[in-house]
Write a structure and sequence with these properties.
The relative contact order is 0.18. The chain has a 3-stranded mixed β-sheet with strand order 1-3-2. It contains 4 helices and 3 strands. The chain has one domain: 2-Layer Sandwich (Nucleotidyltransferase, domain 5), CATH 3.30.420. The chain is flat and about 55 Å long. With about 100 residues, it is an alpha+beta fold. The model has no long low-confidence stretch (mean pLDDT about 75).
């Protein structure tokens, strides 16, 4: 939180409505976005042996954020979404480049 204030990103925690947590998890359950909750954390805990490094880090992050920012909604999102967004952005950039050079 101090770094967010130091660089004037936010003035108070109340300005934050949602926090996204990037998630890598080996389960079809996570093919859709969910609100990150204690129930979701329990589901992740049951999968810990299948992706121990990713899941352990995510659960630690959730616990720290929950303590530092109580009452804020947490959304998990998958790395797959970043890949799709990057593919779309690359397509747009290629189109713009083509338009500029023709």
């Amino acid at each position: 939180m101090p770094i967010l204030k130091e660089f004037s990103v936010i003035k108070a925690p109340e300005e934050i409505e949602k926090i996204g947590i990037r998630l890598v998890a080996p389960s079809g359950y996570f093919l859709e976005d969910h609100e990150f909750s204690d129930e979701l954390a329990s589901h992740l805990e049951s999968l810990r042996t299948r992706a121990p490094l990713h899941i352990e880090a995510t659960l630690k992050e959730y616990k720290v954020l929950k303590k530092d920012f109580p009452g804020i909604k947490y959304m998990e999102f998958l790395i797959v979404h970043f890949i799709k967004i990057n593919q779309i952005m690359l397509g747009i950039m290629a189109f713009q480049l083509e338009m500029l050079t023709s």
